[in-house]
Structure formats: structure tokens, C-alpha cells
Amino acid sequence: MKRSNLIVFLMIIIVVIALNIISSFVFTRIDLTAEKRYTISNSTRTMLKNLDDIVYIKVYLDGKGLPADFAELSLKTRELLDEMRAYSDNIEYEFIDPTKNVSTEELRAIYGELYSKGLRPQPIQTMEADGVSTRYIVPGALVYYKQFEIPLQLVDSDDGLLAQRDDIVKYSIEKLEYNVGNAIRRITHQQKAKVAFLKGHGELTNAEVFKAAVAIAQFYEVDSVVLDNRITTGIFNVVVTDTVNGDFNIKGNKYDLLIIAKPTKPFSDYEKFMLDQFVMRGGKLLWYVDPVMAEIDSMYNLPEMPCLPQNLNLEDMFFRYGVRFNTNLLQDINALSIPVSSGENVAGQAQYKMIPFYYFPVITPFVDHPIVKNLSWLRTEFVSSIDTVGTSNSNLKKTVLLTSSQTTKVLNTPAIISLEVLKKRADLRQFNKQYLPISVLVEGEFTSLYTDLQGENVEQLNVIYKSKPTKMIFVADGDMIKNQFGKDNFIYPLGYDKHTATAFANKNFLLNAVNYLCDDEDILQVRSKDFKMRILDKNKILKNRGFWQTVNLVLPLLLILIMGVVLLTMRYFKYKK
User: Fold this and answer.
1) Would you give the DSSP letter of residue 492?
2) At what angle do helices 42-49 and 176-187 cross, to 10 degrees?
């Protein structure tokens, strides 16, 4: 029996050692979460396997004495990098404690160098016996690839959507794969699509779309292009065939995606032709259009504001592409609040109060599509509705992305509105419309608006009458892509509302739309993963704290007591004979 037990014991030891040796070469992980939050997506695996050189990551979130939440973030970062190394031998990393064995002057120099490279040291306050102490940590990393270097922020607050530190760190852990993978994609230049903002028709200025351009520049090359009546300097790659006669041929599109952000001036027929041919050659378009002329600034300066249809000379093109912008304004009970003068003065200062303005609907995405999946609320200003048009047997697939809520009112134009409407209580019986489309995705093979074009220049222009499979997105609110400004022209994040100090998901909607249009559904797949924030309800904790403390103390002791009684009873009946 001793020999047999010894053999079994030795066999167990051998099996355990063998499993450890095998596990050091073969990575495996069992993810028991419902949304598979700890499983790397297929797109990230493919990206890692395509690496052609070493990607070296220096993580500066390390060392003793880290707060518990940041220590967890550091641990999860290490685990993610270990998992990435299982799919690619070109991932190398190092964890560094910048405070270890350095003087105060050296530490200040280290923090200054990291700050210059894009990493922001973050102050952390802790309570100690002699008072409150402040120390700095660096929740970030530097990523190296060949001769390139970029910063990686491990803390992701989603432009202020989360206010408390605990929630921010938990959210950052959920977004680790996206943020780390995005940094690797950026530095290895695996996304090379070219995106341009169209200019020349009263579109939003560069300052007004600055945050949008910065967000897109994380993935693609961003440019701006003026669309005028000169085809040789615009949106096409043009080859001159005869310098004497000025003959040329269009060889293809210069950009993969054009963003038309709130145009206010009409397009000429020749400019429409160029946009049409851009689409026929597989180009994608992202339209942010105001069908109605209405500006909140005008309402603050004038007692009444006329709302008139916007003349952009694009109705026939939109109809051919499968949509129609309605010249109306939507009102919604679920609306953003704006500051309105109360008519009172205190110490010489005018007093304001926040009142919901029904012309600024707050949109909640209801559609299960990767572009809007898991998005929070969206901020709008003077939004209109969109209809889908065309025959059912066309080659176009139309998907409604965003709608109003179930309590919507429609105001047809021309009309006159003023801030006086805020003083009246809304009649809910008039808000009887439901889920009116305000953003539509159209994809497929488009038919040219110029199928009957004739003339001697048709051959030279290489006119195409049916497009390659392509896609475009229409949004019936030009201000959804516009960032707000604060004092001294401070630019707020895209989607941030300065009056309510609330961040909305306008930036994420833009990024999702651009990724989808640029066929980067791998990035979209990672960003739209289901992350359920399992955050404890602090109100319930305070209310039921005593009950759960009692349960946690008494229940384990009670279970042990019950097990002891059961075992004693079993022993009694077993040995009483």
C-alpha cells in the first residue's frame, strides 16, 4: 500500500510539472464572463499575427504602494500583454517604476520627459496618520516600433462621460484591448485610408471640426479639400495626357472618404457631377446636413427666428442615392437644457435657469448595428427627419441608424420660433410621433445621377454610370459633428455640452461611422464589444450596509455549524452499532 501510494504521489507530481511545462509554450484561457470581455477579438489576433517587426511597450504603471484600483489596472495590462504575446512573438514589454531609486530632482526630470512625450503624471491623494499626502503616478506607456514612438494612455475616461475615479479605472480596464490594439495599429500604419473634409460651400470651419479631425487622425490620414469647378485640383487623381490642349484622364479617387460637415451654400451642377463620379469610383460619403436654416445664436439675439428650408441643390442627388431630407424640425420631450435669462439680477449679474429646449433632442440609439451598438446618448441641435425612397428591388440596402424617441413632435417649415416657447408647458398630446429616422446608412451599387450625360468630354472624363459596391451615411443635423468653444476659444471635446457639463457620444458615433465606411470593421468590432459596467450601487451600499455586513459575518459561521452538525450526525449513525 505504501509503494502504491508513493507511485500515485510521484505520478501526480510528474503530471503537474508536465502541465506547467506545456502551459509555458501553449497559451490557453477560459473566459467565463457572459460578454467574453477577457477574450481577444479575432480582428486583434489577425493584427498581431501580421506584425513584421518588434513592438516594444514600456509601461510606467508599476511599483509598490499603488492605489488598489490602479494596481488592478496594472495587473490587467500585464495579463493582456501576456495574452497578446501568445499570438505574436513580436510583442515585447517592460514594466517600469519611475519612482524607484531616484531622487526628487531626478523624479521631476523623469516626469517632465514623460510629459513631453505625451504621458501625463496623475496626482493621487491618500489619507495618512499625519494628514493628506499627494504622490504622482503615470498611468500610461510608450510604444516603440522601428524608428517610431507614440504614447499610450491607459486611463480612458471617454471624454468625461465618467466622473468618479473608481468608475474611470473600471471603464479603462474594459477598454484595454481597444486602446492597446489601437496604439499598435497606429504605430505600425496598418490603417492607411485617406479622409478629407469637404470645403467650399459654407461648411463648418477647421476650428469647429477640430476635435472631429483629431479623433479621426488616430486612425487615418486627414485632409481638407476645396470642391470647386476645377476637376484637376480636387478629389481625383488626374493624369495630364496632353499639356498643350489640357487633356487629362481621371485615374481614381484621391480620398477614400469625404465628410461634408454642414454645408450652407448651394452646390453647382459641375460640383455635383464630381461628387457623383467620386461615388461611382467607390468613394464613400458622410453627410452631416441641416435641411433647415436655424441657429441658436440667432434666437439669443432676436425675439423671433424664421426657419426656412436650406437650398443646397442636392435634392435630386439624395433622391437618386435613396434618401430624402425633410424640411422640418423635430421636437422631443427628451431634450437638452439650455440657459435662459430669468429676468432677475443679483449683484448686477443676470440670472439664468436651465430649461429643456425641445428643438435639441437627446437621441438614444435603439438599432442593433455595429455603428450605434452600445452608444450612449447623442447631442443634437435643430434636427430634421429623413425618409428612405426608391424601389424595393434596387441594389441599395438602407439601414436606419438613429431615430427620435416615442414622444416626438414635427414642425414643418417655413416657421417662426422663439425662446418664448420655453415658458409654455408642453402639450404631450402633440408629441404623438414615434421613432422618426434622423440618420440612415445606404450601401450597395449606386446609379449615377448623370446616366443621360452626352458630349465630347464624356470619354475624357471617363464617366461611370454604375458604382462599385460602396456606402454612405446621412445625418440630418450638421451640428452633431461640431465642437463647442469656451472662454479664450478653448475647444471642448466633441459631444461635450458646456451648459450642462455633460459629455455625449457624438465622437464615438463619428468614429464608428468612419471606421465602417473605411471598411475597418475590425476596429469597430473591438470598440463595440459588450462591456457591462458591473458597478456597485452606492446608494444601496449605504442603505443596506448593516444587513450585508451581518450576512457576510454570520452566514459563513452558520454554514460551518450546519456542516459540523451533519458530520457528527452521520458519524453517530455510522458507529452507534
Assistant:
1) P
2) 30
